[in-house]
Amino acid sequence: MKTGMVSCVNHPDREAVVKCRRCGRNFCSACVEKVGNYWYCFDCLKEIAREAKAVKHGRLTITLAVGALLSVLLGFVLLWTNQSVFMTLAMWMQSGSVQNEVAEGLLRVALPAAIGAFCYILLAVGMLANKAWAFPFGLLLNAFLLIWKAYEIMHGEIGSTHEIILLVGGPTAIILSLMMNRRLLVE
Ligand SMILES: [Zn+2]
Ligand SMILES: [Zn+2]
Questions:
Q1: Quick one: 66 and 46 in the same domain?
Q2: Is the model's pLDDT at 31 over the cut of 90?
Q3: Are residues 67 and 154 in the same domain?
Q4: Domain match, 67 and 43 both
Q5: Measured CA distances, 26 to 42, 46, 94 (Å)
Q6: Can you give the pLDDT at residue 122?
Q7: How far is the CA of 12 from the centre of ligand 1 (A)?
Q8: What is the pTM of this model?
């Protein structure tokens, strides 16, 4: 060993050639990695990756929050515009049994509306928690609602303007929110 030589933290017999940018310790060339223009030791690289993951996980942008809020709202709109959900429930609670026509109504309208509402609330939870599945799930769910509502509008089945604005504008805004936060959700 040469006198005055600074040795690697991990290898006392090797000469240190680089200082880690983060911790400032000295390392040999085998113990560091270059990221961008700087050298880091492996301990620090692991720590940086862990911190980045934690930051990403807790990050909530305004557009993502708006998208999630709209999802919850759409979930309730789906239930509200299909009031037979409540009527079916009320009839079922009164009679204590499901009659044929009630059962039919439940299957035709109430069940899809309830599933739709559940999906939208699930989407909001996924978006707020930065879950990767929220991206494809949200795109599919909203594309489906848009196509369905476009079909109903073309056939004159949706009357009121505010209903059209909510059921078409809502999914469009959620798709935009998902696209804008794509990296946050997918990576
Ligand atoms: Zn370091
Ligand atoms: Zn070393």
A1: no
A2: yes
A3: yes
A4: no
A5: 12, 17, 78
A6: 96
A7: 16
A8: 0.63
